[in-house]
Structure formats: C-alpha cells, structure tokens
C-alpha cells in the first residue's frame, strides 16, 4: 500500500511535470491528480524538490545497479559490455517519462541532489571505462582505443535515444539495443576477436 501510494504520486507528477514543467506544477495539483491527501504526499516526500530528485534517482540507480551486476560477473569484457549496453538502452523504454522529465527539468535540482545524481552518473561511466580498459588490456578490444573517447561515444550515442525513441516506432527497444551493441562491438573488438 505504501509503495503503491508513492508510485501514484510519482506517476501523477511525471504527467504534470512533462506537461507543465516543474515550476508550473503545485503540490496541490499533484495530490489532486494522484487522488491522495496533502498529508499523504508529505508522508512520502519532504518537498516537490525531493520528488524531482527521486524521479531522477530511480532510473540512474536502476542502470547503475544493472551495470555493476553485469560487471561483477566472470565473463569476457565484450559480453559484459553487451549486457551493460542492453540494460542502458532498455531504460529509455522502462523509464521513458522519468527521462523526459530529467532532461527537461534537471536544472531545477537542488545542489545536494544534483551532486548525488552526478556521482551516480560518474560511477556508471567508471564501470564502462573499466570494462573497456580490461578489454584493451586482454587484447579482446583494439589496442589503439582511447578509453575516454570510446566511453563518451557510447554514453553520447545511447543517451541521445531519449530524443527520438518512440514505443510506436519501427524498431522495438530490444532491436535498437541490438543495433547499438553490433555497432559498438564492431568498433571496439580487435581483429582477432571479430
């Protein structure tokens, strides 16, 4: 019941923030849309600012936990990178509304919340870098790869998905993930592992 109420608040705010922007929405509108009391809102969130942070944190935590889990497996770097990219791309479908609000409204995050989000994004980037570094060190990936540029290319390419991905589009999110994986692995694998 508690989790369900929290989800109702988040879902109502996602719809409202997407439509009217963070500053165009009041707590009263959120509780009215969610069909709850103001006390119910403040039981779960100390403020609208905290709610915005939680919206951001949900998908960042999801993708970070999945990447950390993939990276802990005793598998070759290419297999781990494939798994990380697949989970990363899936987030644009699972948390589509969260991401839209994130990109529209992240400038309104409080500095302390922004710092947490930034730290998690850095951790995620670090996991991708470590997998690429290991792939280069073991010879599975090309020796001439720039670990930093390759990491930023992957993050940039996949992050841009939020701009154009539509559930009703020609390709499913799984097909898009497979396409990215194919593209990235063809770029990073050494000739001996292709």
Automatic annotation (TrEMBL):
The residues covered by the HTH tetR-type domain are 3-63
User: What keywords does the record list, in alphabetical order?
Assistant: DNA-binding, Repressor, Transcription, Transcription regulation
Q: What InterPro entries does the entry give?
A: DNA-bd_HTH_TetR-type_CS, Homeodomain-like_sf, HTH-type_TetR-like_transc_reg, HTH_TetR, KstR2_TetR_C, Tet_transcr_reg_TetR-rel_C_sf
Give yes or no: UniProt keyword Protein transport.
Answer: no
- Keyword Transferase among UniProt keywords: no
Q: Which PROSITE patterns match?
A: HTH_TETR_1, HTH_TETR_2
Superkingdom of the organism of origin: Bacteria
Whereabouts does the entry annotate DNA binding, in residue ranges?
26-45
Q: Cross-referenced SUPFAM superfamilies, in alphabetical order?
A: Homeodomain-like, Tetracyclin repressor-like, C-terminal domain
Q: Which Pfam families match?
A: TetR_C_24, TetR_N
Which PANTHER family does the record match to this protein? Answer: HTH-TYPE TRANSCRIPTIONAL REGULATOR RUTR, HTH-TYPE TRANSCRIPTIONAL REPRESSOR KSTR2
Protein name in UniProt: TetR/AcrR family transcriptional regulator
Recorded source organism is: Oceanobacillus luteolus
